[in-house]
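To the team - NDP complex, inputs and output below.
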Amino acid sequence: MAATILDGKALAQARRAQIQEEVARFRAETGIPPGLAVVLVGDDPASRIYVRNKERACQAVGIASEQHHLPSSTSQAQLLSLIDRLNRDPRIHGILVQLPLPPHIDERAVIEAIHPAKDVDGFHPANVARLVLNQEGLRPCTPAGILALLDHAGVPLAGTEAVVVGRSNIVGKPLAMMLLHRDATVTLCHSRTRDLAAVCRRADLVVAAVGRAELIRGDWIKPGAAVIDVGINRQPDGSLKGDVAFDEAVQVAGAITPVPGGVGPMTITMLLENTLQAARQLAAGPSEATR
Ligand code: NDP
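Output:
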């Protein structure tokens, strides 16, 4: 029997309608909308598309987004000075610096310059530490979106075997930690993992965040397992493929995300949720999460 399709697009739409209502309530209570500053340095075409999509999503729910598009010649000092200004701007509750940055700018210094209370990507070391310690804080958007999808579909996590393929700081590592906090038994795989197929075969949940089209085959999936495909791999004909061979895996899995229309729309939705969460925390005054 073919798997249930985990429709990220539909869930994202429903969540965005809720966020829109909550944004309106925040605005009525505080007199200002939640504000997101999006900083783009240079002209990377993919980054321009991501930034535009984020801006549109903000507009649709009533979040005030302000774009700072800087030339690729911008110095690190200039970028840090902009971040400092945004950190102190009371109308701005979230700051997102689109990665990658040009090679002459130290990404780490930039991420660390963002105030943790405004770090809506959840990449600041203070927020990473809060995630590891299971304390309240801003969580990275892609893993948060994956958990929202799994919870919405009622996929059980406690006591299950979860295999995450890919150990990046933005997807694999934070997701592994979130699944651990939900009492899954987590295996985190990478390019040096021996016999990846065998590791995947024992999983009740497989998450692929690798960036290699159709690496995960249908016969790597345990019958009935949930499969989350984070991969976005542009093909020569312009189409998108995930990291999972969908046509094969859909025959075996219990539930599976499509590409596109699975994890992608949830990622932007979580950015909106994080901006709202940051705005609420900042409006409530200093707390554990905003110090
Ligand atoms: P990275 O390139 O940062 O990390 C890729 C990971 O995959 C690394 O840990 C690497 O291992 C591992 N890997 C590479 N080849 C293999 C292999 N043959 N077997 C097992 N593991 C392997 O990727 P990201 O996490 O940034 O992104 C992963 C994918 O997800 C990309 O396609 C990206 O476009 C997509 N993405 C989608 C998002 C969405 O919203 N839908 C958001 C973010 C990313 P090692 O560490 O050993 O090198």
